[in-house]
Design goal:
With about 90 residues, the chain is mainly alpha-helical. It has two helices and no strands. The chain is extended, with a radius of gyration of 20 Å. It starts with a helix and ends in a 41-residue tail after the last helix.
């Protein structure tokens, strides 16, 4: 992520990027596929890494995320989460 931020900052320093609508659109057009490929690689690595069991005897999830049955977040209580939905006009 720092790499991409550094590139944009370099564009700003040389006056080639001022953050307006067209500049942001051009950055997305030029770099979106590259960034998406990097994110896909991170997802693939995460899904295939091994999570070690907890040494304290707690019933935490362990194993490879892509092979675990169910969803890791099924047991999270979201009843106290505040929604920040905004109507777009």
């Amino acid at each position: 992520m720092d790499y991409w931020r550094d590139i944009v900052q370099e564009f700003q320093a040389t006056g080639d990027f001022n953050g307006d609508f067209i500049d942001k659109g051009l950055i997305q057009f030029c770099f979106l596929k590259i960034i998406q490929n990097k994110l896909d690689t991170v997802v693939r690595i995460w899904d295939n890494h091994r999570i070690r069991p907890d040494g304290n005897g707690c019933a935490l999830y362990h194993g490879k995320p892509c092979l675990m049955s169910g969803n890791l977040f099924d047991n999270i209580d979201l009843s106290s989460v505040k929604a920040f939905n905004v109507e777009l006009q």
